[in-house]
Known about the structure:
mainly alpha, Na+/H+ antiporter like fold, globular, sodium transport, ion transport, Cation/H_exchanger_TM
Amino acid sequence: MVFIESSELLNISAQSLAYIVLGGFVVAFSTVSVLAKDKFFVNEVVLGTAFGVAVGPYGCGIFDPHSWGSSTQTVTLEVMRIVLAIGLFIIGVELPGPYMARHAKGLLFMVVPTMAIGWVTVAGVLRALFPGLNFVSCLAVAACLTPTDPIICAAIVGGKFAVKHVPLNLRQILSAESAANDGLAYPFLSISIYLTVESSKRVAFEKWLIIGCLYQVIMGVVIGAVLGLAFSWLMKRSLRRGFIDRESYVAQYLALAFLTIGIVSTIGSDDLLAAFAAGNALSWDEHFNSQTEDELFATVIDRVLNCACFVYIGAWLRFDTFNDPSLGISLIRLTVFFIAILVLRRIPSILLLYKWIPEISSWQEALFSGHFVGAVFISTLALTRLPEPRYPPETQQELLATTLQPIVSFVVLGSIIIHGLSIPFFSMGRNVSRTLSRSTRDVPEWMFWINQRGAVYKDEEKSRKPDLDLEERLEYESRAEIVPASGGSSTPRVVHSPEAQ
């Protein structure tokens, strides 16, 4: 009889546990995704992060990215790069036609001044709460927190709840802006890093202008756009000659995204902005969209990657670093910092500028628009350009390298939690606003209840117009007029103008 020891068969490794954890969550979430998203309005962002924390080093201890040693930063950087690049590519493809050209004014105001104001504001708050960091180091940390996160944004504005309650123009501008400003975080980060590591400010600004702006951003956009346009032309010619099938069209979601980030990251340009530009250029004439409009491949891949990404982030978070008095880090300071940037980072500038943004029609929409996975990528990228963190740090560069990710990861965690409640909160605010608006009618509310037989109620109007969506119904009801009683009736009537019907 042959005796086989279990150690000869079992192969428990970090890789196999990672596959179990990531695959297990995707399977579990997929079985209840409609219930979670449409009933409880909780998406994969919040649930994935919570699951990652549960199986991570502060939970069951099954999945710990930090146990991989020196390769942890590299793995984290590449995981975030792939997830963000594919997400940005898909956003670029799914924007309708030449959206970026038609809405250039609104995007310009939403991206450039909003990012610049938020960058300086966050740095100022950091300087006040963490006096050990000089202002340049604070600018480096703030650069990681300046862009909105396209993955979280897509999860928020792409759900069924958002489709019903958030106007299409607002959803599109938020998606485009989140994609654009995630790539444009490079110049903000590069000037901060150059000022930190270079002894001469002149050299720092020269490198920032030539490398940070021209080579990384402009070159990245140009290469991405050229790749997108070239492959769009190539695929149309191949289709006319019968050289390409529908499945190959759909495969471009992954293939061209990987090709773009591979080429652009190899030459050291902005690969995230290049991926977005490639996706937008590929669908510029909407031919690619027409060939893939009934396919769910991109949505499936995006969902799987997002789930895996946030599980990874949940396990990656280091809760013990949130309280380190020797570095001036405490939970109270981090909480105050998070609340401050939540209020000050985008909301004031959006409220100030929204009148110049045609896609935002009211201050309520501006407030919603002011409401980070991108921060994890940018902060990890920053660490690759800084000295190896030491404890205790001896120089300002070492202090920045040591405190960067604890601050950023806390804000990421808080942002994930807050963004998970954004859509229901926005809807509640609109319902309250509608309730208040009813109370301002010229005719008191009680007059509508005097004689129900002669009055037309909102519920009746709603039942008469079952085919109206929320936005159309709001417009329909806003045209209601109070008509004085006539024909022997003592009850005023609610009527609608013919154009409303």
